[in-house]
Amino acid sequence: MTARGGPCIVTISSGKGGVGKTTVAVNLSLCLSLAGKRVLLIDGDLGLANVDVVLGLNVRHTIRETVQEGRDLKDTLMRIAPGFSVLPASSGVPEMTRLSSQDQELLLSSLEGVAEDFDYVLVDTAAGIGESVLWFNNWVNKHCIIFSPDPTSMTDAYALIKVLTTRYDKKNFYLIVNQVESVKEGKEIFLNMESVLTRFLGITPKFLGSIPRDNAVIRGVRSQQPFLQKEPDSRAARALKQLSRGFVEELTAV
Asked: How far apart are CA 92 and CA 21, in angstroms?
């Protein structure tokens, strides 16, 4: 679906932790909302939530209560800014990472109901190839993969894409290279990944762009404020604004 015919739902995933996935997801969501889009960010790391930490939220209700108590998800929504809402998850609740198939169906059905009120729904999954990562990605048909120039990050991103392609027949991948030293480095890393994915998996990913390594990002995380809001003229913020335009163009074209 597209933002014109229904919500555009996309997972934000990474092969490993530490690549800035949640920070990118939060700032991208904010950027889209500032452009006039209605955006929902779902914290899909059901057992170790981080979106609330990055935003400095005082969370009262989480997705866990929908699964375990039947709470309406709309009562869990937190409005962060005009057009930007968050569905927070729980932290330190390991059973949420091992939901039964019945609980998975209940949750995804509830999420589909909430999603109808938005133009874009971003699901910030856990890192890796755990069970919740896979079924969230199986729920949608558009997958944004974030990785850094670190060889282990690239290897793990490839592994995640391989699982989603071979096990679930997923094809629509959109790549973001985070923490790069230059635009040139970001493009070269993407082209390398594209070559590998085309050769071994027969898929052609789309490049959404890269985000530079920038101390503004670190300052934003430490102050629990989106760097886009705290330092809107920083290198990272400018790159993210450009990336968000590509995000809208590419993801609504399919």
From this structure: 19
Q: Is 96 within a domain?
A: yes
End-to-end CA distance of the chain: 8
- Residue 1: inside a domain, yes or no? no
**Joined tokens for residue 48:** 């170790």
Q: 100-137: per-residue pLDDT in tens?
A: 999 999 999 999 999 999 999 999 999 999 999 999 99
Q: What is the pLDDT of residues 162-178, one digit of tens each?
A: 999 999 999 999 999 99
**Is 127 in a helix, a strand, or coil?**
coil
Q: Residue 206 maps to which CATH number?
A: 3.40.50.300
- C-alpha torsion sign, points 39, 44, 45, 46: positive
Strand order in the sheet with 143-147: 78-81, 84-87, 39-44, 120-125, 8-13, 143-147, 173-180, 206-212
Q: Which residues are annotated as a binding site?
A: 16-23
For 219-238, how does the pLDDT look when each residue is reduced to its tens digit (9 = 90+)? Answer: 999 999 999 999 999 999 99
| SS3 state at 33 | helix
Q: What region does 235 belong to: left with phi over 0, alpha with psi -120 to 50, or beta?
A: alpha
Give the number of domains in the chain.
1
Query: What percentage of the chain's residues is helix, strand, coil (to nearest 5)?
Result: 50, 20, 30
Domain with 213, as residue range(s), is 8-251
Neighbours of 225 (CB within 10 A): 16
Binding residues for ATP: 16-23
